[in-house]
Design a protein that fits this description.
Length: about 200
Amino acid sequence: MFSPACERNKGPILGMLSRWLPPQASVLEVGSGTGQHAQHFCASIDGLRWQPTELPSNIELLRFLLLQAPQPEGLLEPLALDVRVQPWPKGPFEAVFSANTAHIMPWEAVLALLAGAAGVLAPEGLLFLYGPFSEGGVHSAASNAAFDAELRARDPSMGVRDAQVIQAEAARVGLSLSERLDLPANNQLLIFRNGVGMLER
């Protein structure tokens, strides 16, 4: 399995992560998919420790795919994670990263992702959410509107999420929006900072 979308977006995302991640960062990835992001980022950022995860039903496939390529230093053994089920992998992490997951998760899982990230992030840790987002119910491009309609026709629990709603829900669990960056193909990177952190909970 190979994701053309990951191959296209890994460069722009890497540029943003390189600017925002602290040195020697430990990062938890939620929904690693084919593992292409994990491998590329670990191979490109010195000292990075990257914890891939996938749903229990997909974890063996992820493990198999990661073994098909050289393992960069800092890439850890994948773990099974359903964001709605506790406990999450033991933190604290300097960052949590998730790409192209919010629009395919049920909304209750998106809320669980936000709460779970806040629970494992170190104080001032960062949550990176990448994908297509709307703004106040308005899509940034016709292609995103069409994608949203396609997702909802396939499964009413899926759909392009509203960045304003996500920001409000993130604030409820102590995550404040630091930056919202436009990336190619009408995608965005939402960067939240943890104002509390698991060490203070």
